């Protein structure tokens, strides 16, 4: 059974450290500074530990798949850390592709309105099993967009991630599907998170420190809602940026 993490949404936010593994030197003190600059408590999970837990959970499943008839899909920038860190002995030999995605976000609320697939992939018709490997699964919007973009009527669809929002809390998910998302047989992750009152905010550090317009928007929105010491927050971001090799 996945670990269930109950989060007090009034005082606690979540984050995934998906950048320490590619830092030139330790950034732990700046992650701590980042957490201290926020209102309440910022609980940071290490991506390497999460991926180790995910690999243990999904290992047996991957061993029974026919590699020649299976495909791993890594969507968007968020999946990069999984592609980099998942054990070669686990995923080696599986065909895999990366899919570029773009979220449509409400600029006022930050709510995800939808996901566009930048370029629809061409998939071999002999593929029977498709596994989406993503960093976080919350609304399931990305999973639905990918499935809708690929015309394989008889394929079995699966997904896995480092953290997944509880289907109980996510009202957008289908009540008819076993895992809560239409067309997917299962979702595997080491941690399922759920807020006590509302959906807990969950961000990746790579989004905080990025140099894109999207990252800037994420930072500014986060500062407005959750940061009490703006100068310390920005200093922590600056120091992490200096030590992390950004793609």
Number of helices: 8
Strand content: 25-35%
Total E-strand runs: 12
Number of self-contained structural domains: 1
Gyration radius, in Å: 18 Å
Task: Fill in the CATH topology.
Answer: Rossmann fold
**Helicity, in percent?**
25-40%
Shape label: globular
**Termini Cα gap:** 35 Å
Order of helices and strands: EEHEHEHHEEEEHEEEEHHH
Overall mean confidence score, pLDDT: 89
Instruction: Tell me about the largest β-sheet.
Output: 7 strands, parallel
Could you characterize the architecture of this molecule?
By secondary structure, this protein is an alpha/beta fold. The chain has one domain: Rossmann fold (3-Layer(aba) Sandwich), CATH 3.40.50. Helix content is 32%, strand content 28%. It has 8 helices and 12 strands. Strands 1, 4, 5, 8, 9, 10 and 11 form a 7-stranded parallel sheet that branches. The longest helix has 17 residues. The chain is globular, with a radius of gyration of 18 Å.
Topology (elements, then pairings):
Blueprint: E1 3-7, E2 12-17, H1 28-36, E3 41-46, H2 47-63, E4 70-75, H3 80-85, H4 88-91, E5 96-99, E6 101-105, E7 112-117, E8 129-137, H5 141-149, E9 156-165, E10 184-188, E11 191-195, E12 202-204, H6 205-209, H7 213-226, H8 230-243
Parallel strand pairs: 1-11, 2-3, 2-12, 4-5, 4-8, 8-9, 9-10, 9-11
Antiparallel strand pairs: 6-7
